[in-house]
Amino acid sequence: MKLIVKLHPEISIKSKPVRKRFTQLLESNIRISLRHTLETVYVQNQWDKIIVTVNDATPEQELLIIDQLQRTPGIVQFNLVEKSEFTDMDDIYQQVFAVYKDQLDNKTFCVRVKRNGNHEFNSTDVAQYVGGGLNQNIATAKVKLKNPEITVRIEIKNNELYIIKRNYRGIGGFPLPTQEDVLSLMSGGFDSGVASYMMIRKGARTHYCFFNLGGAAHEIGVKQVSYYLWKRYSITHKVKFVTVDFEPVVAEILENVENSQMGVVLKRMMMRAAASVADKLKIQALVTGESLGQVSSQTLANLNVIDRVTPLLILRPLIQHDKQEIIDISRVIGTEDFAKTMPEYCGVISKKPTVKAKLAKIEAEEANFDFDVLNRVVAEATVMDIRKIESEALAEVSEVESVSMFDAGDIVLDIRSPEEEDGNPLNLDGVEVAHIPFYKLSTTFGDLDQSKNYLLYCDRGVMSKLQALLLHETGHKNVKVYRP
């Protein structure tokens, strides 16, 4: 099997030194990625194209190689070709006829020719001769120069003939790592996954930073989608996965920041922490999945205030995308199923969140925040090679039982934030109801009577399940989720 990779037009117009560097990186990336499938792959850089030759591959391996090239950054398109030598135009026609005779039955077609070298004919001569021969000898085929069903493509270079059997589209962009490294703030949802993919596609080695707001189950889910993006689109380069336990920061915000300002303050704390992580990893830019106006913290005024917290460049590749557009892209790149099942954090919810934050007001609220908490969680962040995630991320997490009824002696723990609980108190007959905010649960649960069974409750059932998983992992098996 022989494949010809066409250079991205934006690479072709670069200066000679830049073009050389980009094509060398692409050549190296193709070689590294394809050898995960088959050792006997030969990659040859010919300046204006890269030729991939595969010998002794099974049909399944050939399909895997094609799939890998289709998701390699820097490849816009590539052709599956049949290469041979020729003697004259009739020889060219005979070889093309052998390849296309079955494909052109009951089809409209045209012939396109590219030629390099010294010949007694030009490209138009070949196109007319081959097209006329195909039209004459395939009774049901019909020439159609505009919008044909099949385009027969031929390339001639000196005495070599390349018959293009099929054209494949790639993801485009630039080869890795033609741009500087970036740190993507990953939540595991639609937006952060698509934003990360877009930066990988543009040639930026993308590392992942996860702010854990929902316990071990959430972390496992985010590791899975991050690992998937790395393995599918950037397996040629090592990247880091960073986990920052942000529950202490959330608790500090909920207790000391005015309700309407909490969302913006939380984002500013994330940016501060991410900037510190990026500085340690010598990374020059942060990436988020924010889209203008999508939620209250993403208004232009609020983003302006959020950005003031760090001089580090913050990239937002989805800033003008609609939600449906983002979901559509996630479906194409393969992260939709991850995002649909990823629990959304439901802790810091303001009743009337500000949409026009004022820097002075935010800074005044942050004066009540204990920054030792933020410094501690950043210092304790875990940094790991993403290649080590697979066994950990794919490990099965035991399911937590959900119940709609309670037995005698059970205690229902309402783990919603105080504002949520005050606005809609949980009143149940025949069972004791206690209120412990989720952000205090891990530190206070051990003080409760462990002879009792506890049913965790929150409005959507997400936070209660995550907290139950966390308590199970710390040895507390007397916990279920209450879903009336």
Describe the structure.
With 484 residues, the protein is of the alpha/beta class. It has helices at 9-12, 16-34, 59-70, 89-100, 123-137, 190-201, 215-233, 247-256, 262-280, 300-307, 323-333, 336-341, 359-366, 371-379, 389-393, 418-423, 438-444, 462-473, and strands at residues 2-7, 41-45, 49-54, 75-85, 108-116, 142-143, 150-157, 160-172, 179-185, 204-212, 240-245, 285-287, 313-315, 382-385, 402-403, 411-414, 432-435, 454-457, 479-482. The strands form 3 sheets. It has an 8-stranded mixed beta sheet. Strands 13-12-9-10-11-14 form a 6-stranded mixed beta sheet, with helices on both faces. The chain is elongated and about 90 Å long.
Largest sheet: 8 strands, mixed
**What is the CA-atom radius of gyration, in angstroms?**
29 Å
Number of strands: 19
For the largest beta sheet, what order do the strands appear in spatially? 2-3-1-4-8-7-5-6
Helix coverage percent: 40-55%
Structural class: alpha/beta
The coarse silhouette is elongated
Beta-strand portion reads: 15-25%
Instruction: Provide the low-confidence segments as ranges.
Output: none
pLDDT averaged residue by residue: 89
Terminal CA distance = 60 Å
Number of helices: 18
